[in-house]
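FORM 12-B: Structure-to-Sequence Request
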């Protein structure tokens, strides 16, 4: 069956000649494993995160001789996958990870699912048992193509050595074009061991895979008309704008129209946080102004966003007055959750560039939007309900203040990677993101344990940048072993552990919705009778643990030491640095829209529901 943009089935390549003619490339006689490494070199893969094992071992022998591919030996395959994702998000290139069959491959399932949800270009190479043993339940056999079929953009099972070059070329092409995503290449051990011929470039054969990048002119003109006719428009910007490298075009369109811009969790940095047209992040824990702007809008221009449940809240009550212009590279997203009045299929950069021209044409004809009354409302909400936090009355560290100061004291161009939970939302709120690819997080899957390996991958790809991982004590205990990888491979990331002794976001829900019954959310060894973490308990002791893995480690408990400790961390660049920030356990993330409720019910703070008045619903 021809492959389409959304195809996810395992593809079994047929043997065939794979070169463009006798003069296009010289033919070499190599093993399949040597062919694999040569192919990675030719597609421009300069970094591979991996862990060897029996079935992939043939590939590791020629890898030792490569001068163009750096291999970084991780401590867990999940770390390899998240590191490849962080590398891809920070550099814009395809991330690569390589592991063995069976449990090695299944340990990649979580980072593959994560990359799929967040549209990250990733190529995962897995070893497989010998082709004749496939399906026999051989030692360390797992049907990784079948397992990952729903969470890959496409995957391949390679059983013949001659198919390796064109499969790798196709995998990188599929991963990086159209809507980016993960592609898995599963290679049988005997295909790696067999001898074959190698020539480059191979001929790619992907019938039916032709992503639409150029938007339809009629739809663009219609969208431009709606923008100039609207009274309350909002540009709803998703991660697709960053993937398309379209931040410059977005800024031009926003300033041309004067419409407010809201950037999702995956799009932070696509539009400068400091820009006066930016009204914040929307969603469950979004800024009141951003959430309300979408609810009151008469036109939403969605650019590379997918109307996911964390943004819309209760879907049937979302943006009841708004017409929808929905532009996305993936036609399957348009109309999936919210019907589009003007659907636009295309690459975000091309869509935005064409929209700018179409809006300019409208202006030339005298059609300009009048948003004065709209901005009067928006500015009143922004002034009345700004993001903020209270300092703990007992004088302990505020987690929000810690994260805010980490952001303020970080060198220009710092890349921030966050785990998942309260610290993730605070990092989204209280660090300013002025440029794309400076904020990395697990948005769609919400993967605890993402931060440390993703920061490692980002630093490997952008060694000239400072990279901070903002992590929770729960997330940190899932993947901190990759600090050993960082220490041994000269990858000096910095880690801020926001240590409240609990699974913070789950505890927040228990506080709000489960009558403060803190079932299994305390992380330290003992618990007080009220469910709070036992005072003085240090199991594990993150400072000792980090030092044992080759890091410089500090503990900070006193707000008076905050700046000094952060500045010390910023000054150390010859090894990883970990700071264990002991913070107050009762801090909560606000604003908040409770799961399953309408965005109209947004709470600015605990017990504080914004009052917008009745006249704004007209």
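FORM 12-B RESPONSE
SEQUENCE OUT:
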């Amino acid at each position: 069956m021809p492959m389409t943009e959304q195809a996810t089935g395992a593809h079994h390549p047929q043997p065939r000649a794979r070169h463009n003619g006798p003069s296009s490339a010289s033919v070499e006689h190599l093993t399949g494993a040597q062919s694999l490494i040569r192919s990675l070199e030719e597609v421009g893969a300069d970094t591979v995160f991996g862990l060897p094992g029996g079935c992939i071992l043939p590939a590791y022998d020629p890898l030792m001789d490569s001068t163009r591919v750096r291999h970084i030996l991780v401590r867990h395959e999940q770390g390899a996958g998240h590191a490849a994702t962080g590398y891809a998000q920070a550099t814009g290139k395809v991330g690569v990870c390589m592991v063995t069959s069976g449990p090695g491959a299944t340990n990649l399932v979580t980072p593959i699912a994560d990359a799929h949800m967040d549209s990250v270009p990733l190529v995962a190479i897995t070893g497989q048992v010998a082709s004749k043993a496939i399906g026999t339940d051989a030692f360390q056999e797992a049907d990784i193509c079948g397992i990952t079929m729903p969470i890959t953009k496409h995957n391949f099972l390679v059983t013949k050595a001659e198919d390796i070059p064109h499969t790798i070329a196709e995998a990188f092409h599929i991963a990086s074009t159209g809507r980016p995503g993960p592609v898995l290449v599963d290679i049988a051990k005997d295909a790696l061991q067999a001898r074959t011929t190698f020539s480059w470039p191979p001929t790619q054969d992907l019938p039916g895979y032709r992503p639409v990048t150029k938007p339809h002119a009629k739809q663009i003109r219609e969208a431009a008309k709606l923008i100039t006719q609207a009274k309350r428009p909002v540009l709803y910007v998703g991660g697709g704008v960053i993937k398309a490298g379209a931040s410059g075009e977005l800024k031009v369109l926003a300033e041309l129209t004067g419409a407010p811009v809201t950037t999702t969790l995956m799009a932070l940095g696509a539009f400068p946080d400091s820009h006066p047209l930016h009204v914040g992040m929307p969603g469950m824990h979004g800024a009141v102004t951003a959430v309300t702007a979408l609810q009151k809008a008469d036109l939403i221009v969605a650019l590379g966003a997918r109307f996911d449940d964390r943004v819309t809240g209760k879907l049937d009550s979302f943006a009841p007055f708004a017409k929808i212009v929905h532009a996305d590279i993936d036609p399957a997203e348009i109309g999936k959750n919210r019907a589009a009045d003007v659907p636009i299929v295309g690459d975000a950069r091309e869509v935005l560039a064409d929209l700018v021209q179409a809006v300019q044409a409208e202006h030339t004809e005298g059609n300009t939007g009048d948003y004065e009354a709209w901005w009067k409302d928006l500015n009143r909400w922004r002034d009345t309900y700004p993001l903020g936090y209270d300092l703990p009355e007992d004088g302990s560290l505020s987690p929000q203040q810690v994260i805010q100061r980490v952001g303020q004291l970080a060198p220009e161009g710092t890349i921030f990677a966050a785990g998942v939970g309260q610290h993730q939302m605070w990092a989204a709120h209280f660090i300013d993101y002025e440029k794309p690819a400076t904020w990395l997080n697990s948005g769609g899957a919400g993967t605890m344990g993402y931060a440390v390996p993703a920061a490692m991958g980002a630093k490997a790809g952008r060694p000239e940048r400072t990279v901070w991982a903002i992590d929770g004590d729960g997330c940190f205990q899932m993947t901190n072993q990759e600090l050993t990888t960082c220490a041994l491979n000269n990858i000096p990331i910095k880690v801020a552990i926001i240590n409240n002794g609990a699974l913070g976001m789950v505890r927040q829900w228990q506080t709000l919705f489960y009558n403060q019954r803190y079932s299994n959310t305390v992380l330290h060894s003992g618990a007080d009778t009220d469910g709070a973490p036992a005072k003085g308990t240090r199991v594990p002791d993150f400072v000792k643990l980090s030092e044992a893995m080759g890091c410089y480690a500090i503990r900070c408990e006193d707000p008076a030491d905050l700046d000094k400790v952060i500045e010390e961390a910023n000054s150390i660049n010859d090894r990883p640095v970990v700071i264990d920030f002991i913070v107050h356990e009762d801090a909560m993330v606000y604003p908040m829209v409770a799961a399953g409720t309408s965005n109209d019910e947004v709470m600015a703070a605990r017990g504080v529901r914004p009052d917008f008045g009745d006249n704004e619903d007209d």
